[in-house]
Amino acid sequence: MMTREGLLQELQDLNEQEIQTIYKMVQALKRSRVSPLAYIEELMNFRSDGYDEKEGVYVYRMLVTEELKNRYKMLHGGITTTFIDTAMGSTVFQAFGIERRAVTLDLNVHFLAPAQDGWLTARTRVVKSGRTIIVMETKVTDDNGKLIATATGDFFRLA
C-alpha cells in the first residue's frame, strides 16, 4: 500500500512537466469530491453549455491537454469516446430530468480527424426516445469547426 512518504519518494525524480501533470490529476481528483462529475470528467474539463434551441442540440465542451494525448500527440481515441459517452449521458439528464438514469447499450464512434489542441465541442441530439431506449447522435468539432468525430448511441432507461 502506498504511503505519503512513499508517494513523496516517487515524486523526487520527476521533471517539471511531470509534476504539473500530477498536480492537474490531484486537482481533478479533489474537484470530483464535491462535483457531480466523475474524476475523468474533471480531468477532461467537461463542461455543459446547455441546449441550443436553434440547432436542437445539447452542447458540451472539453479541453485537449497533454495528459489526454496519445504517443502521436493527438487526443487519445478512448478519451474522445469518453467525451461523447459523457455528453450523451448528460443529455439524458438535461432532456428527461436529473432523476432519470440510463446506461450505454451501444456506442458507435467514427474518428474523422485528429484533435490536437484547444477545446472540443460536442453537439448531441436525441433522435428517438422510446419507453426503454433512447437513441442519440453526437458530432464533435474543434475550435476551428473541423469535424473530429461523429457517433450514434443507444441508452437503456433504468428509471
Summed up:
A hairpin with a 4-residue loop joins strand 1 (47-52) and strand 2.
Note down, in words, how this protein is organized.
This protein has 159 residues and is α+β, with helices and mostly antiparallel strands. The chain has two domains: 1-34; 44-157, Hotdog Thioesterase (Thiol Ester Dehydrase, Chain A). It is built from four helices and six strands. Strands 1-2-4-5-6-3 form a six-stranded antiparallel beta sheet, covered by helices on one side. A hairpin with a 4-residue loop joins strand 1 and strand 2. The longest helix is centred in the middle third of the chain and has 20 residues, at 77-96. The model has no long low-confidence stretch (mean pLDDT 93).
What is the CATH top level name of the largest domain?
A: Alpha Beta
Beta-strand residue fraction: 35-45%
Structural class category: alpha+beta
Return the CATH architecture of the largest domain: Roll
Query: What's the domain count?
Result: 2
Number of strands: 6
Q: List the helices and strands in order.
A: HHHEEHEEEE
Instruction: Write out the strand line-up for the largest beta sheet, numbering strands in chain order.
Output: 1-2-4-5-6-3
